[in-house]
Amino acid sequence: MMTAADGPDIAATPHILVVDDDERLRALLTRYLSDNGFLVTAAADPEEARAHLAALAFDLLVVDVMMPGEDGLSLTRDLRRGSTVPILMLTAMGDPEARIRGLEAGADDYLPKPFEPRELLLRITGILRRVAERPTAPPDDPTPAPNPLRFGPLTLDLRRETLLRDGEPLHLTTTETQLLMVLAGQPGVVFSREALAEVTGTAANPRGVDVQVTRLRRKLEPDPRTPRYLHTVRGRGYLLRPD
């Protein structure tokens, strides 16, 4: 089902795909998001979601974790092999380990059930805002980073925002991409946790940057426990140091 709120131009309206096997919740989310100005398509399972994704362009996915058959984690992992579309996961499992599994699968954010509709709306608008805001380097940077930037088997194209490992695409979440682009824009320059939190939209909880850095290291580093490229500068922040 697809609906659009009255008023905004459809071409400029963010398009959200809701994937949830609960028919009642699916209908409630569709109606609520539509009433708040979004274009909404709904799917009852990952198979239906893939059919929509093959035919339509989406700005964000809201995916339930617990579904019969293939679950939301599996769908998210599969999508991350070829897509950077933002994903917000919903789950009845609110423990930290469940949240970590969702983030490791490639989700951009994670909202435990039950939740207030207003919080869902704030999470969605926050993700979309971060996607729209391109990360920028500090204005006093006199030396732009080389492009492409190479470190080990990795090649980062700063203009296209693409990352290759040994010539093969390495897929990052939207937040991971934003974080890497800021650090790579000034190799060797230390960025504070607070500055990076502003870019990634976690200013209310700068420690969230640490989680994103950990995830990024798992994808970039030969051994994430002893980083070669993405370094912590104690008391100051983080820096990227290519070869």
UniProtKB/TrEMBL annotation:
GO cellular component, one term: protein-DNA complex
Cleavable signal peptide: none
ATP-binding among keywords: no
Location of 4-aspartylphosphate modifications: 64
DNA bind region: 146-242
Swiss-Prot/TrEMBL keywords: DNA-binding, Phosphoprotein, Transcription, Transcription regulation, Two-component regulatory system
Name this protein carries in UniProt: Two-component system phosphate regulon response regulator OmpR
GO biological process: regulation of DNA-templated transcription
Response regulatory domain segment(s): 15-128
Organism expressing this protein natively: Roseospira goensis
InterPro entries (UniProt xref): CheY-like_superfamily, OmpR/PhoB-type_DNA-bd, Sig_transdc_resp-reg_receiver, WalR-like, WH-like_DNA-bd_sf
Any GO MF annotation of the entry: transcription cis-regulatory region binding
Domain OmpR/PhoB-type residues, every copy: 146-242
Gene3D superfamilies according to UniProt: 3.40.50.2300, 6.10.250.690, Winged helix-like DNA-binding domain superfamily/Winged helix DNA-binding domain
The organism's taxonomic lineage, starting at the top: Bacteria, Pseudomonadati, Pseudomonadota, Alphaproteobacteria, Rhodospirillales
SUPFAM superfamilies with a match to the protein in the record: CheY-like
